[in-house]
Amino acid sequence: MHASLVRRQLQGLIPPKIATPKLVSGDAGTGLGPLVEFYSKLPKGRVTPRVSGIKGRYFSGENASGKPIVALIVGLFAIGYTLDYNMHLKHHKNHAH
Amino acid sequence: MSGFNILSPLSQFEVSSLIGVNAPILGYLNITLTNLALYSCFILLIALGLHLYGNNDSNLIPNKWSISLETSFASLSSMVREQIGAQSEIYLPFIYSLFFFILFGNLISNVPYSFAVTASGVVSLGLSVTIFIGVTILALSIHGLKFFSFFIPSGTPLALVPLLVLIELVSYLARAVSLGVRLFANIVAGHTLLKILSTYLYKLFSGSVLIAVITLIPFAIFLALIGLEIAVSLIQAFVFTLLVCSYLRDAVHLH
Amino acid sequence: MASRIAFSSMRAAARPRAAAALPRHAVRAMATSSNPPPPEQRASELMEKLPSSPGLLTKGTSAIVATGLAATAISQELYVVNEETIILVASIIFVTYLSKMIREPYKEWAEANIARIRKVLEGARAEHTHAVQHRIDNVAQLKDVVSLTQGLFAISKDTAKTEAETFVQQQKVAVAAEVKSVLDSWVRYEQQLKEAEQLDLTRTVIDRVLVDLKQEKTQRDILMQAVAEVEQLVKNKAV
Asked: Which residues are listed as membrane-spanning (chain A) (predicted)?
């Protein structure tokens, strides 16, 4: 008998293919391994924000507020006043010029 | 006039040295920290601090700080894109930092007792002349000798060319000065006005109670002028960067 | 002249306090004129805004301390009241007003934008999760494919074996049928042969008898025998 004849005769014996690697991995042809690895490394659930430092308290996320601006203005005024006081304001005290 | 010592209203723009080293090295090297330098450092620190602290850890979802940064970046980016062209976004970092430098310089000067950095000619004229030179070098490097066609408007009769070239050259050179003068004149004028008015108001307030109560009316106008100063701070920073953008466009595209 | 100078300097020394006190009253008056809540409420609101650290400093004491510090600074001329103070007060008023004006619209605008971006991102995440879940479900349908295929192979192996056995049995049956038919044919042949032999025998016997009958001697013998039988019968008085 010829080989093809044998194959044709055996065709009834080989069960039908119900899944291929391509069917599982999409069209990429690669396995699901890298994909599963990627997703398993992603963090799950909600992040609990760490409130620490100036940034955490006044800038980040929900804590964003205008307080740093006020602090900056007050600080700049204090520095400016101190400089001015030491440069010449204290010499004009009591209007003694 | 006794009792009150009235300094010149322009004395607030005086550059004075805070700490100085006058070392007899390198031919009497003079290293001085002036109030100008100190406030320039403040501008740098504030600009850096805003962008470091307000960046919301580069999260995709902005917070109330970072959304203002993102919005200002977006508007500056669209300005650069409209003015210079979409392919010229390499100038965006320069425009962005220029805008924030001038903006913070202007805004800091609105805090009482602080020094107005942009009100000194050396800063604003230095900036504008530096930008002018840089823009000219940029135009020469992009267009080579063709750059000089910038000074001859198209369709000029040959006889008029020398005259027009002269006029165009003068107007081109005037940019360097006008850019800086516009900024520092605005800031100087505003601060001087406030200083003068506040001197008057102080005198009026320190009079009798009746006069002090009546002075509340000009004081309300003074409040409006404070608001105007803050608005001018913003507008001048914007105008400066807008003009730098248009000069850059001229350099890149030659009309 | 000297007395005038002394007088004016005395007046000037008294002035800073008045000047410092006046604008602050003015601030209160201006702020309250637009919406007049009861003064107690207003005061308690102000008290709420003051900084405090529990245990160390109550809100009331912090107000007293702040006022005291300001008064001390002015009276000791650590804080020099001059025209810059007017700018300071005006700036404070204006910035407070501005921040009050801007705070709510800015908050709304920022939160609307944040909500928009959050919605887009979370929508994208939900969509992606959905896609991944869909994919997982798809793949999950194939999770027992190995055992199923192994079962199929076992079944087909079984089928093959059964088919082989069937074939063997069929061959055996075929051989038996062949043998039976051969044997049957043999039986039929031998029967025919036997029948033919018997036929032949009878024919030979009949032929022989007929031949014998045709012979005179036989006829005579038969006749003689018949005669003898008759004689016998007669003798026996049978007939």
From this structure: 69-87
